[in-house]
User: What shape does this take?
Amino acid sequence: MTPNRVLLLGAGAMGKVAAQTVAAFPEVGSLLIADLNQNAAQAVASACGAKAQAAALDVTDPAALTALMGRADLVMNCVGPFFRFGVPILEAAIAAGRDYLDICDDPEPTKAMHELHDRARAAQITAIIGLGASPGITSMLAARARAELDETEELIAAWNIEEDAGGEDKIGFSAAIVHWMQQCSGTILECENGRLVDKKPLMDVSLDYPGRGQRTVYTVGHPEPVSFHFSYPDLPRSFCVMVMPGLWIKEFRKLAAQIDQGALTLEEAGKELVEGASGSSFFGKIIENISGLFDGPRLPIFFALAKGRKDGKPARVATTVRAIPPGMARATGIPLALGTRLQLQGKVAAKGVIAPEIAFNSGEFFDLLAPYCTHPEPVRAAALVEVVKE
Assistant: This one.
């Protein structure tokens, strides 16, 4: 097999993990790491060894972006926010005729990128979008759950902000809250009656997790329902939920209302939460009410639920992973690197814009992921995915 040239865009925390992981694969002959900050790109390249080089790149310069893509066989995109950069970078990959993978976690660009499917297929490229933790791991869990049913009527992807993701880069409100507020304000995309529709976020959902019990979770905007709609055109209903304590949801709803009214920008809303991390503020209230943090059974950090029919009878399936790569940078960057390896190995035949749930075999994907899953403790590959049916 001829070693491949890989271009990685974005030298942040997730890009660094993806770069270091993919650099170790024999399928990769060279790795070019590009970032607006060349010093950051060089630091990541130095951490990746002799295969890697660095380049300065402004991704908003289409000519420079397309030219740099011409020096690679495959492009990995870790440049966010994806609502700003996802579509133009994919368009550049299509123009350059290069295979493409990313970690897009915004639903609106996910829809726009899926709508580039015909252009990508005409260019004979494979573009796999949303391959991180959520979407990515959640997408593959959904595919695993769906495979247990003869007919799927509803598919739910979920992520849980109550649970510790492990690692040194534990989820911090200063980094994550702006993205959360974007997905919790305005309208969100869900699949209803086989169509993508705008819905109000932060709506209560009574979720009964097989074997664990029932609790209230909350709808949130995320790419999974959008990609499921394109991946499974016969799927009637799909949405994404976020698990959080009822104490938190009140604060999110209050700030979301202020965003919708134009009183706060997303950044201002996030700053307000971060700056209020003392006294009787939002975080102070959490500390004061620590016993009420969990409003029902503890749920996994990532999971999927499928409802439908099996052997002519109603059936439900829940899937989760018993361990994850520690820290959100690893839980996001490692799946991207593994998908890249599968793509370079010729394991993805489809052309066009596709999502992880149809790009990869779920068993093969989780077998590759298992050695990296050490939080809360290592799990052998055969036991990584927990499947509960009822």
Remarks:
- The radius of gyration is 20 Å.
